[in-house]
Each structure stands twice: as structure tokens, then as C-alpha cells.
Design a protein that fits this description.
2 domains, alpha/beta, 13% strand, Amidase signature (AS) enzymes, 503 residues
Amino acid sequence: MSTDLTRLDVSALTGLLTSGEVSAVEVTRAQLDRIASDDARLGAYLHVEGEAALTAAAAVDRARAGGAEPGPLAGVPIALKDVIVTEGVPTTSGSRILEGWRPPYDATVAARLKSAGTVLLGKTNMDEFAMGSSTENSAFRPTRNPWDADRVPGGSSGGSSAAVAGHLAPWAIGTDTGGSIRQPAALTGLVGHKPTYGSVSRYGLIAFSSSLDQAGPMARTVLDAAVLHEAIGGYDPRDSTSIDAPVPGLVAAARDGARGDLAGLTVGVVTELGGDGHRDGYDDGVLARFAEAVAVLTDLGADVRPVSCPSFDLALPAYYLIAPSEASSNLARFDGVRFGIRVGDDGTHDLDEVMALTREQGFGPEVKRRIILGTYALSSGYYEAYYGQAQKVRTLITRDFTAAYAGVDVLVSPTSPTVAWPIGARVEDPIAMYAADLCTLPASLAGVPAISVPCGLSEGLPVGLQVMAPGLADDRCYRVAAALEAAQDAARGHRLLDELVAA
């Protein structure tokens, strides 16, 4: 087939696979060839399955040839962020401390994708233990942005974003603790959705911050993201935080939105997130593209109005107390005893010394920074002053969302205050790095769903618009994102036609 299979979206691929026009092996081999040719430059993958992927694809082809229908997603390749535990496949969470570990079981997300017949291409690079906004904190190598290899792809799911944006995978799973799906999606021109907390199982997701972590889809179209979300979502009794409720009709919402009618929908523009009067730290180009996208929503029939959520200004300091505090507890399990590397086990050190040496060599500087910060915030005499106060701010942020949704259906903001920045530009300035999450943190702290959808370019680099909705109303996010996506596709088509006529 002459078509470049790596450039097709999943909706097109599934049509070709189910009709028999292409085989799963052909699609998988095309992706593996693209990885082999381009990933040395991008650094999107930490591990590539290679022959295992081709074997899985061949099994799908045999099933179809035998008259079975293995499902609409069978044979579609996928990449998983390396924080998703995968049976028999190296899983490091981007850290030296787990180098060489091959888990004996599948995370629920991995198991559901395997059951659907998707073909695992490999595990994608990430900031170590998901702690970062640029994927420069990976213990193994940085990931580069396919739009400009001298710039970051965002983080912590930067490997997944670079893989999909660089056509090294048709879609991928990321995880989002404070924006780690949405922010890299924005910086690489993708669609990325953080589901309602508890609506996608966390079983087998290596924990950073247990009250915040969520796995979700990253794709090149809103419809593809919705399809992937439905495949992984739903109740899981093995996850104590899982919500026993059906996944709303996300695919139907995306298709409805693509028809371009938002009449009857009320959209709130968050003043504190790049709205009027809050412009410090935001690129002018980002604000311009955001304003243009909001105007499109108005043209589509939405009732757009400003909404103030004053506690959102406190999300950054609250998050960087809550998340490190939970990390300091979660990462205590990495002690050089049960799994991963072990340093100093030569008979000359006692157990405490082995643990200390293992952690010293196994954890990177950002992980150590956050563990120290979290341990301090939880220590006697400081718990209430820091962690306790941060949790009170979290409650205020949740109340702001509740109050806002009493008057609007969804809230919108830029996804990231800036476009992708040069690699190394913020490494020595953690505060500047943390500021990349300004817009995404409130939804994470409140546990509500939020999606990033491309809304144009600034400086030749992608800009994302974020849509936030009430808990379990993920379908609203997909409806609005699909409407904007369709309107922008139509606008691009009209511009191209005008250029052809003029020529």
C-alpha cells in the first residue's frame, strides 16, 4: 500500500484493518520502521517491543483470517508511558532505581488494551516518577519536541507526546498528576485528556501522588482520544479509588461536537487563567490564539462569559506541597530490597546503608528535591502549617469549581502559559519549570476532567486550549473540543482553497 500508514489517525487505521485492506503486521512494521529511523533524534521511547509487537500483530491477522472478529481496535499499535506496569516488559518510571525491572503483572489499563487487541509498540520516556514538566528529568535521556528538536515536548508524558506527534505511534497513554497529559499535548499539537479522578483505574500505575494521578489518552484527533478513553475507562474493584459508574458516551459526544453546534452551551472563561487582568507569565501569542479560539466557540453558538475562580491563584503552591508529601510516602517502597537496583550489597554495609546508597544513586535530583520537600511538609510541627493548609486551599479550589458550574457548563483557559521552550532553559530554575503547570493544576486538585485541544500556532509552535467540566462530565470536554477541532479544520480548508484560487 502506497499510503504512509504512520500518518493515518486511528479512525482511518481501524477502517483499513477491519476491511482487510492492510494487515496488522503491515501497520506495526511501518511504525517500528519509523521508530528505528526517527527515535534516535527524538528520544520518545525507553523500550521498544520489536519482535513481540510483530508477533502480537500476526496473532490478530490470524484471528481475522480465521473468521473471528477480534474487535475494532485489534491490530492498532499503541505506546504506553513507562509508569504503566506491563507484564514482562521493562518498566522503569524513568528512574535508574527501577532499571531492569520486569513486572509480573499488568496494570488494569494495560490489561484492557491488551484485551482489546491493541499492539504494544513500547514504553515511552518520561520525567522520573512523573516529576517534571519537560521530560528532561528522565534518568536515561531527554525527549525532544518533533516540531523543533531543540525544544522540550512538555512533561511528564513527553515521550508519549513526542511519539504521537512525531508519528512514532498513532496514539498513546499518558498520566496526569498536575497536567502531565494536557501540557505536553499542548506543546506538541495533540489532544490530551485527564479523566475524572477515579474513572480510569490506577491499579498498576506506579504512584507519584495517589490522590492526583490519572491515566488518560493522547491522540492526534478528539475522536481518537475518545475511543481510547472508552477502552481504558470504567470501574475496577482492584482500585480502591475507582468510581463505580459507567463511562459516559465519549465517542458519541465527540461525534456530536464535530457537527459544530454548541447552541445552548454556556462557556466560562477563567479570569485567573489568562483571562482579563491576569496576563503575567503568559506569552502574548498564546493569549492571542486562545482569544481567537474563544471567538470560534461563540460563533458555534456557545454563550461565552467571564468567570472568576479566585482560589485558582493558590493552586501552584498548594500542589507543590500536596504532591511531594504524597510522593515522600509512595517512594519509600524503593529501597533496594524488593526490586530494582541494589547498591552496596557487598557484605560491608548493613541494610540501612544499602537503602541509603541505593536511593542516592537510584533517584535523580528532582525526585530527591520533592521527597525532601514532602517529608519536611509532613514533619512534626510543620504538618498543619504546610500540608494541612494546602489541603484547605484544595477545598477552596473545589468550591470555586462548584460555584462556577452553577452558572456555566464548562470552563476554558489556555493549557500552557507558553509554547515549548528550549531544552535546558529552565533546568536550573525549578520555579520557572513549575510555572508551566499554572493552568492545569486546578482541575487536578479538584479531580475534575479536562482536555487540551490544539488552537493554533505561536512562533511556529503549537498552542492548546483547555476545556474543564464537572466530575464525570468528561463527555462535555469531548463535545466542546471536537467542535473547536472541526471548526479549525474547516477554517484551514477555506484558507487553503483561497490560496489555491489566488495562485
